[in-house]
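Ticket reopened. Same input as before:
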Amino acid sequence: MTDLPEVSGLTIGILGGTGDQGKGLARRFALAGHPVLIGSRDAGRAQEAADSIGNGARGAENAAVAAEADIVIVAVPWDGHKATLSALREPLAGKIVVDCVNPLGFDKQGAYALPVEEGSAAQQAAAVLTDSRVVAAFHHVSAVLLLDPAVDKVDLDVLVLGDDREATDTVQALASVIPGVRGVYGGRLRNAHQVEALTANLISINRRYKAHAGVRLTDI
Amino acid sequence: MTDLPEVSGLTIGILGGTGDQGKGLARRFALAGHPVLIGSRDAGRAQEAADSIGNGARGAENAAVAAEADIVIVAVPWDGHKATLSALREPLAGKIVVDCVNPLGFDKQGAYALPVEEGSAAQQAAAVLTDSRVVAAFHHVSAVLLLDPAVDKVDLDVLVLGDDREATDTVQALASVIPGVRGVYGGRLRNAHQVEALTANLISINRRYKAHAGVRLTDI
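Engineering reply: fixed in the latest deploy. New output:
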């Protein structure tokens, strides 16, 4: 593994931080000592989520979080992804924006990948946020494990994708502040679709094996 | 993990078995005691590949392999995938057909997933081979490791996808005869695209980390 940049002290903002995935990540970053801002369309709901996490997390509207945070994680529902980001182009300019959204559909047979015009949620973010440094990561984290106080370590490699080396290195370092987690470079943004879509397979695997499966890469 | 069926003694045929991926799998199945048939358009080249593997492997034309084998692995280049399978509909009828083809393109920036009209190579196989039991598996195996006599164990979970439980169970059992490998159910065939496409990411990972990365699933 390469040397990764120092990320301690960076303020982490999480758009859509009231959902389980966002809240789980917020909790782990707050536990690791990062100032954490939970964003929501509704400042009150954001504050509620922040209170439930504790460890100094604060809540605010998405726009305020986008403006204040050093690194912004996008954990909004796929349904509102494009509209939410389009409204935040300005406060997100120049920042590392980490998309962790999985465009999935569900039916009786389980989860499946939705087609995305831009190729992937991450590429859609990059198309909208032309002045931001878009990275894709944290797709496969289990919200259940992140939120479970009995789980000290999360046994998982976070695949980090992007075309800006300094940005992907930074997000790899950020992933690695969560005990047990390793941030691993996972390729360019054009190869984000399959990483997002693989979440559908993990859902099938979890159902079959009654597990919270994570991905580890061997030999690195 | 569930109990898997007995597969010892089953004859494994490998279409396109003269390529590295097919030859690597052939070698490991032969070492595990399976009768192995290597298929190619050219019987002479098939026999050469079989001779290089030894351990009782035999070579023949693809059609003869399809007719004789109990389980048939499809390891042909994506380029000839549809045509090869269309010509083998009859000998493959009723059999478990395991597609391990990754439809990838390559340019200066590395590998990327090709769009597939049917959704994935495996779904294309299922669309062509309507009387076969199509399973997708063995996408992420490293040919280099499979072919390396110094490698006793391959540190890898093989994701096995399909809609026929008995067939996926059988292929999971087959994957597990390779020392170190575990066959894991990975979802329905409609979720095969992202597993095939993830090979592009593994290629990027291998390049970045100078590795032969494999995938392991945690918590199962």
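DSSP finds nine helices and eleven strands in chain B. The first strand of chain B starts at residue 12 and ends at 15. Please confirm and we'll close it.
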